[in-house]
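Run log, item B.
One chain of 301 residues. Sequence copied directly from the ordering sheet:
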Amino acid sequence: MPSVTTSYVSFGTSESHTRQPRTITSYGGFTPIPGWNPGPGGNYPSGTVSPGNAPTIDGYHFAFVNVSGGDNGPVTSFSADPQPPLSVPIGGQGGQPNVVVLFVYVPVGNSNGNGSGAVIDAFDATQNVLLDNDFVTVSPDPGGTLTTEANVDGWVNTTDSGYTITADHPNIGPYEALPTTALFQFWSDLLNPSPPTSLISVANLTPAKGETVYALAFYTDPGPKKLPPKINYEPREKPPGDEKTPYPHSEVPSPLEPGGDPGEIAGQISTLQQRLGQSEADLKSTGSAFIKPEDRPAAGQ
């Protein structure tokens, strides 16, 4: 029976929100909205979970809702009132024991007092968490300082110039010993679900001079590959008195499998040799014989 947790969080409290190391480790790295956590939850029977509409919270702008742990992977909606309503299958094959419903908001009228800029981070929708990995390259950036600041503090100042911020793709970048299996999906402008292509184009986020944007680079993690089911090599019993019924091929325990017994292999070879010898003797008794390889005529003769 899956456990469902609902959280209401915000992103973009200030221009700098140290990512490496991240200062907030609970709530997936987001800031919990006071008075709204924990949200509805508990143990649910296998079936579906419906997050419902995003509630209106004073002082906050709704950005998106993401459900992780469902049978078919993460489900994201950028609508506060999705139609049809979200219905996420849980508790089946491919699902996880812990299902997380995450409602993400941006503070309204958030002003950092330090000019305009891009407040950015990397979001793993599969795990419903912000990732600490390096995830962007900023250009132009001759000295590399803007790229470093973007990856460490999640901030690119646009007061004096516009920049192109390119998300690492297809895989996210490294950081210490963190895995780099997460795959880039898209940028999301958290204040505008349908941004112009001048701002977002595939892996590029391009805020203009003086423009402020709150954006997340969405990633998904394919996770470990599932191994194919093991084949059962246990031989089935033959019908009593029936010694000629062959085993189906898939059920024959072969000594040639890894770990096979060399003695058994030698025994089977010896048995074959004895049967060939007996067959040759039987042929001779009828006036026939095997043609040995050295006695065979050339092809076509």
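Observations after the first pass:
- The first helix runs from residue 145 to 153.
- The CA atoms of residues 122 and 131 lie 5 Å apart.
Flagged for discussion on Thursday.
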